[in-house]
Design a protein that fits this description.
The complex is a heterodimer.
Chain A lengths: L1 H9 L9 H10 L7 E4 L13 E6 L12 E5 L4 H11 L4 E6 L4 E12 L3 E8 L4 H4 L2 E5 L4 H9 L17 H18 L3 E12 L2 E4 L2 E5 L1
Antiparallel strand pairs in A: 1-4, 2-3, 2-4, 5-6, 5-8, 6-7, 8-9, 8-10
Chain B lengths: L7 H4 L3 E5 L8 H10 L4 E5 L5 E2 L2 E2 L13 E4 L3 H13 L4 E4 L9 H17 L2 E3 L6 E3 L4 E2 L16 E5 L2 H13 L4 E6 L8 H10 L5 E6 L5 H12 L4 E5 L13 H18 L3 E3 L2 H13 L7 E6 L2 H12 L9 E2 L4 H10 L10 E2 L6 H12 L6 E7 L9 H10 L5 E6 L4 H10 L4 E2 L2 H20 L5
Parallel strand pairs in B: 1-2, 1-5, 5-6, 6-7, 10-11, 10-12, 12-13, 13-14, 15-16, 15-17, 15-18, 18-19, 19-20
Antiparallel strand pairs in B: 3-4, 8-9, 8-11
The chains are: A alpha+beta, B alpha/beta.
């Protein structure tokens, strides 16, 4: 893992500033599922991942809220892919573009994150995700390392927790979500001093698997 | 010089030097000296300008003090207090309390003075409590350095709560209010500016103290961070630990660039950390001392089913509402469903128009015996985990004896019983009488239900720590 992590760090486009695509590669190293995707630099020929529809996004670590700047286009298929990539390239001439398989999912979006508290050290967070995460504030924190029992308890504290118990026919998998949280804990420990903050938002449940649809990692 | 690690000489001193002790009435050095006269400790006033203080010969300087002084209480102003503290440390006194303010809280000059105090442990091995502290108060040992009004008489009976507070003001006001409803205190410690001794050292001390049954903290800054949490978790396996953490920590300027960072600033991180480490949380001083009083006295609940018995239907309804209200992240309570044999028993011993469902409404016509029988029936109902008993003394058929009827049943009960009492202007008097009879009582139904929730949270905590209640 250590050597994989080092080669990941060495391969970053901009030192210490991973973009979404690179962040997702790291998540995959820690067994957190992400959609298949291809990052296209401004001059790259357009190639696409396996199957449509796709999501096309601007891929630049300096852009914080992609949707706010019209940097995300969904439901793209073979007839519209070329035009969509061109539109985004015009909007963000210096940025890469990320083409990903569009993931179908049921149930609510989640957020999983991590940060380092100045007094208490590294911590993980889970909560109701999506663009309104900060409005709902339905989140729970634990310090890292967080034992498996405690990970489960933090999920069960959420107002949204009944979705794991058949609320409105939903059967989202709590064990899988707990595994994502544990993986985030391992990732934070592995990055040691260079870790600052991580957001996985949204994290969704798709065909029996948890998938990180967006990820943002801040290193020191 | 070897660092003093044992706080026994601070908590159980036999020989105390009071720097700045004086005959002059109203001065801090006089009040503290008089307080300490009751402790039975040998007292050594230090004051170069007076020859005697209340019949004790004074010493001109700390260097003149005899051997084996355990504790020096320094009651003079900031700058001279630092000189005196250094002199006491040099004289080999292991514990030093600096009462004065005027240190890091006031600016650069004060910060420098505090740095000198903070250097004492490494230079001389002595420990320093404060500065800017009211010191310590142990009712059962008559050891009291608090020079402001603090309900000392009402608290004289002592008890099991070790109350450790960063703010002196919050501490004494909380003590005053707590004593109004009856409060059993083992020890009060004012941490002040924490230049040396802090929450961690006192957590470790009172965790090991046999007379402490519950630890309550008012903390603004968790300087000892993770170490405190880990020590608290160890303690929590056998004694409840409650923390009122004031001052919400923003996660720092650098952390606001993520959702996680911004959400942590809303205090949720501290909440999660406390829960993870088996620490119960209070959100204001009243909740802190109510929880401490309850957990120091009553056993954890075996479940979350609450029965309410009352002579006043309205309070029963309000109580049931509070029981059924869920607060996110807190343990849930629910109203117990009484067994039919329990209902039948209560029916037989109460008035025809009493309600034998939960809440049990004995009506304003109830007498002492009806209360006793209803409590007996609820204590024997396996579907009831906690009982809240509204003991009112105003109804015409109720006498003062109700207090004993209730207390006798509660004291040795296998499940926790909380009393809610009101008696007009005599409410506090009756709360004190209940307290003296070993009963946990509150003057409001809201506080009684909140106390019940703490008993369930304590049980949940023990379960999470792998210890069954």
């Amino acid at each position: 893992m250590k050597s994989k992590l080092n080669s990941w760090l060495d391969a970053l486009d901009i030192e210490n500033l991973p973009d979404e695509h690179e962040t997702k590669q790291l998540l995959e190293l820690f067994d957190i599922g992400t959609p298949r995707g291809v990052r296209l630099q401004p001059k790259d020929e357009i190639v696409v991942p396996l199957s449509e529809p796709w999501v096309v996004k601007v891929c630049n670590p300096k852009i914080l809220h992609k949707t706010d700047v019209s940097g995300v286009i969904t439901n793209v298929d073979t007839t519209s892919i070329e035009e969509t990539v061109t539109v985004l390239r015009k909007r963000f001439p210096k940025s890469a573009v990320l083409v990903e398989e569009q993931i179908e999912f049921g149930g609510p979006e989640f957020i999983v994150g991590a940060l380092v508290d100045p007094n208490l050290g590294p911590a993980v967070m889970v909560g109701a995700g999506g663009i309104l995460a900060e409005l709902y504030k339905d989140v729970a924190f634990r310090l890292i390392p967080c034992p498996p029992d405690e990970t489960r308890r933090m999920i069960e504290e959420l107002i949204i927790a009944p979705v794991f118990n058949g609320f409105r026919g939903m059967d989202m998998n709590i064990t899988g979500l707990a595994e994502v949280i544990n993986s985030v804990g391992k990732l934070v420990i592995a990055l040691k001093e260079s870790f600052n903050q991580l957001d996985i938002n949204p994290l969704v449940y798709s065909n029996g698997h948890w998938k990180a649809l967006d990820g943002r990692l801040i290193l020191k | 010089m070897k660092l003093t690690t044992d706080l026994d000489s601070l908590i159980h001193p036999s020989s105390i030097a009071i720097i700045g002790a004086t005959e002059k009435p109203g001065r801090i050095g006089r009040i503290i000296f008089e307080n300490l006269e009751r402790s039975g400790c040998t007292l050594h006033p230090v004051n170069p300008k007076e020859t005697q203080v209340r019949g004790h010969n004074t010493f001109a300087a700390p260097s003149d003090l005899p051997d084996n002084v355990d504790l020096a209480i320094i009651t003079i102003g900031a700058a001279p207090a630092v000189d005196a503290a250094e002199a006491c440390a040099q004289r080999g006194i292991p514990q030093i309390v600096v009462v004065a303010g005027g240190f890091s809280e006031t600016g650069e000059e004060g910060k420098e003075l505090e740095r000198r105090l903070a250097a004492i442990p490494t230079s001389f091995g002595s420990r320093v409590l404060g500065p800017n502290t009211l010191g310590i108060f142990l009712p059962e040992e008559n050891l009291d350095t608090i020079f402001v009004e603090h309900g000392d008489v009402a608290l004289a009976g002592g008890g099991g709560v070790a109350f450790i507070t960063q703010s002196g003001s919050v501490g004494v006001e909380a003590l005053g209010m707590a004593s109004n409803t009856g409060f059993g205190m083992r020890a009060f410690v004012g941490l002040g500016n924490k230049c040396d001794l802090g929450e961690l050292e006192f957590l470790q001390y009172f965790a090991e103290d046999d007379n402490t049954t519950c630890l309550a903290f008012y903390i603004e800054s968790l300087d000892s961070g993770r170490q405190f949490l880990e020590a608290a978790m160890k303690t929590s396996r056998f004694k409840p630990v409650i923390v009122l953490k004031a001052g919400r920590t923003a996660a720092g300027a650098s952390a606001v660039s993520s959702h996680t960072g911004r959400l942590a600033g809303s205090d949720r991180l501290v909440e999660g950390a406390l829960r993870q480490f088996g620490i119960l949380r209070a959100f204001d001083d009243e909740e802190l001392y109510d929880a401490a009083k309850t957990l120091a006295t009553l056993p954890p609940a075996k479940g979350n089913r609450v029965a309410i018995v009352t002579p006043a239907g309205g309070y029963g309804v309000m109580g049931a509402d509070h029981v059924e209200t869920h607060h996110q992240g807190r343990s849930t309570l629910r109203m117990a469903e009484l067994l039919s044999k329990t209902r039948a028993r209560i029916k037989k011993t109460s008035l025809p128009f009493a309600s034998c469902l939960n809440p049990v409404d004995l009506t304003a016509g109830a007498n002492d015996e009806m209360f006793g029988s209803a409590i007996d029936a609820l204590l024997e109902d396996d579907g009831v985990d906690i009982i809240i008993c509204a003991a009112f003394f105003a109804p015409w058929a109720i006498t003062d004896q109700l207090l004993h009827v209730v207390a006798d049943r509660i004291k040795h009960a296998s499940k926790p019983v909380i009393v809610f009492t009101k008696y007009g202007p005599f409410t506090e008097e009756f709360l004190h009488r209940f307290h003296d009879a070993g009963v946990v009582g509150f003057p409001s139904i809201t506080r009684a239900v909140r106390a019940a929730r703490f008993l369930v949270e304590r049980a949940d905590t023990l379960k999470a720590l792998g210890k069954e209640a």
